[in-house]
Write a structure and sequence with these properties.
Layout lengths: L8 E5 L18 E5 L11 E4 L2 H6 L9 E4 L2 H7 L2 E2 L24 H12 L3 E5 L25 H20 L3 E4 L10 E2 L2 H7 L7
Amino acid sequence: MWPDWKGQDVAIIASGPSVKKSEVALLDGRMRVIAIKKNIEIAPFADIVYGCDAPWWRSVRGLPNFKGLKLAYDEAVCSEFGLRRVEIPDKYSNDILLGAVGKVGAAGNSGFQALNLAVQFGAKRILLVGFEASVRSGDHWYGRNSWNGANNPDERICERWRKAFDNASSVLDELAIDVINTAPFSQIKRFKRMSIEDALRVWGLQNAA
C-alpha cells in the first residue's frame, strides 16, 4: 500500500544551499516529510527517503537504520536493498502525472518526482525546502555529489528543472494544492515564496507539534 496523506501537509527537503540556513527542525511533528537522499541527515525525522538514482543508495548501503519508507527508481538497487520502487514511464517527461500512484513524471530530478508523489498521496499543502534549481546558487549544502557514479547538475539540467516546476504550478493550482517555496534565491518562480517559519504561521501550524 502507498501512503494515504489525503488532506495533509507535506514538506519536501531538497539539497540546495539554503537548507543549512532553514529551520528544518520546525517541521518535525507538524507535517509529513519527504527527504531527498542525503537530506535525511538534515531531517532524520522524515517519513520517507526518496532518491531516483542507484549510486547514492549504494553509497549508504540502502540506509539500513532508517525505519521509514525508502523509495527509489532503479530496479537493481530496489532489489538489492529491499526498497519500494517508483516507476518513471517516460524519462523525458516533465509533467506531473495524476494516474496510478507510484508512476511519476521524470523532470530529471528526485525533487520533482517527490513532488509528484506527494500529490498522488493526497497532499493539499506542500512546502518546498532547498529547491534552488540553479548552479549559480552554489553546490548542494554538502558540496558536490561525490559518491561513485554520481552526477552533478549543469545549467542545462537546471533549466529543465525550472521549466518542469513552473509548468507544474498550473496543474497544482487546478487541483487546489497550495505550494510554498522556502528557498530565498530559488530560480523556480511560480510558487509563493516565504520562510519555513512564515509558512507555518500562515498555515496555522506553528503550535501544532
